[in-house]
Specification:
By secondary structure, the protein is an alpha/beta fold. About 35% of the residues lie in helices and about 25% in strands.
């Protein structure tokens, strides 16, 4: 497997508590990798380390052969790794178009020229199905629209890797289907995706490989089909394979 992004033996300690303990992850270009596990497993901590918001206590993150641990989120973003957040954080008083244009102006290694930003922002909003909401204030958007705007703001930075943190959380089945389709279209454009997700149907539908964390420890890795049959995963996360469909928020 081509090593596009590598997390090498990542550990993170907060006040004597190990949020992550010797976690390793390799991600191939153009793939979709899922990170699952119960609440408090260390999934978002791993995202914070990959995106540069946190320093690992030990270990390192390598992107395209270069160590990026410690570079900080702004520099990591400009190198080509963008993320969304579980709790959406748009600039509420700005329009959807203006939210995306901020990413175009400040999130890229080479910012888009001012005269080209409107056209580029509209193209990105089209990608996530928000072309009809360009002039709507972010605070007036529905939850699913805000989540898609969060994805659009990340896409505005021209990422090579997109970290999605529970983008379907709180959505109804129709909205989940719409979001899954959006993620598939993003991958078709050559963007590598790593996603934290609780809803197993989404993981099964999208991910080629899945990493399972429990109390900061990596307890399994494999295809979705392999992972949901792993006894350690069933005990720690699913409860039982038969209950997997009924326990999306375990």
């Amino acid at each position: 497997m081509s090593r596009f992004l590598e997390c090498r033996k990542i550990s993170k300690v907060f006040g004597g508590i190990k949020a992550l303990n010797n976690v390793s992850l390799s991600v191939a270009p153009h793939s979709i990798v899922g990170v699952i596990g119960p609440n408090g497993a260390g999934k978002t901590t791993l995202f914070n380390i990959i995106s540069g918001s946190l320093l690992p206590s030990t270990g390192e993150v390598i992107f395209k052969g270069k160590r990026i641990s410690g570079m900080g989120p702004a520099r990591v973003c400009r190198l080509g790794i963008a993320r969304t957040y579980q709790l959406v954080r748009p600039f509420n008083s700005l329009s959807a178009m203006e939210n995306v244009m901020i990413g175009l102006a400040f999130g890229r290694a080479e910012p888009v020229a001012r005269r080209a930003r409107v056209a580029e922002a509209f193209k990105i909003l089209q990608m996530v199905g928000l072309e009809g909401k360009t002039n709507h204030a972010a605070e007036g958007l529905t939850l699913v629209e805000k989540k898609h705007l969060e994805i659009a703001r990340a896409l505005a930075t021209a990422p090579q890797i997109l970290l999605l943190d529970e983008v379907v959380s709180g959505l109804n089945p129709t909205e989940i289907t719409r979001t899954v389709d959006t993620i598939k279209q993003i991958q078709k454009r050559g963007i590598t995706i790593i996603m934290v997700e609780h809803i197993l149907k989404v993981v099964m539908a999208l991910c080629e490989r899945v990493v399972v964390l429990n109390y900061g420890v990596q307890i399994a890795e494999g295809t979705p089909e392999q992972v949901v049959l792993d006894e350690a995963v069933i005990e720690a996360y699913i409860g039982s394979f038969e209950d997997a469909e009924e326990k999306p928020h375990a």
